[in-house]
Design a protein that fits this description.
By secondary structure, the chain is of the alpha/beta class. It is built from 10 helices and 10 strands. The structure holds adenosine-5'-triphosphate. Adenosine-5'-triphosphate binds next to α1. It is a peripheral membrane protein.
């Protein structure tokens, strides 16, 4: 997948400008940057879910098909088998009235995949018993795992993960990131992982782009960005990661 020249303005305010990056099958790319840099907005634009009043420009290239990022209908058609999302607040993204198993079955049927709900649960480290649970019966970490199972059940080409570990403790964060990366690599799914925490992604994403105020201020191999941060925003993130 390649994103070319993504721009987004709302009411004359430029929120994203000339954002470009590419990612291959089974690769992992981090989108880093401080709060308000535009990380989540990039994902929303790719999914055709930018705010109603937003003017979005640029193109998405996938499977040799060029889709204008202004074309919400075409982007909606890519959701599921093309691009799937693991949101920041997984618990809130689940249907409170239906069991985990029912939600998994629905996604499998909707996207006509060969996924089996039981297998999907096992793959994210949850026992079969979780199929009978309602979202309010899940911990934060378990809800994130269910959200990952739902996203992978679509058998997407690209998985977009928006700070999926934000609300978890340190141990659960590390486990979830590891699970994300292993599952995506095993299924040859491209992973775009949004985070403001460089330390959290350094072991799993070989490449990154750094956003600040809607623009890409640095990009390349994470090890190189760590060793020689090219500009102040990356340097501040590296310093924070070193402090621990
Ligand atoms: N619906 C909207 N209307 C107007 N501005 C918006 C809207 N949604 C987001 N923005 C603005 O877009 C900018 C980028 O927001 P975004 O949520 O993408 O940041 P982020 O990098 O993901 O931050 P965080 O790490 O805090 O989640 C912010 O200035 C935000 O105020």
């Amino acid at each position: 997948m390649r994103v070319d020249d993504l721009g987004c303005t709302i009411a004359g305010r430029t929120l994203l400008e000339a954002v470009s990056f590419s990612i291959g099958e089974g690769e992992a790319l981090a989108i880093l940057g401080p709060s308000g840099a535009g990380k989540s907005l990039v994902l929303r634009c790719l999914l055709g879910l930018a705010p109603e009043q937003a003017k979005v420009t640029g193109t998405l290239l996938r499977d040799e098909r060029r889709v204008p990022l202004a074309d919400r209908r075409a982007l909606a058609g890519l959701r599921g088998r093309g691009l799937a999302l693991v949101p920041q607040a997984a618990a809130a993204s689940l249907d409170p009235m239906r069991t985990v198993g029912a939600q998994l079955r629905e996604v499998c049927a909707l996207h006509a995949t060969d996924s089996r709900p039981r297998e999907r649960l096992a793959e994210v480290g949850l026992s079969q018993e979780f199929a009978l649970r309602y979202p309010h019966e899940l911990s934060g970490g378990q809800a994130q795992r269910v959200a990952l199972a739902l996203a992978l059940a679509c058998r997407p080409a690209v998985l977009l993960a928006d700070e999926p570990m934000a609300s978890l403790d340190c141990v659960s964060q590390a486990e979830l990131v590891e699970l994300l990366v292993t599952r995506c690599a095993a299924e040859r799914v491209a992973l775009v992982l949004v985070s403001h925490d460089l330390a959290r992604v350094v072991r799993c994403c070989p490449r990154a782009i750094v956003l600040d105020r809607g623009r890409v201020v640095a990009s390349g191999a994470l090890t190189e960005l760590l060793a020689t941060p090219p500009e102040p925003i990356t340097a501040a993130m590296v310093a924070a990661a070193r402090r621990g």
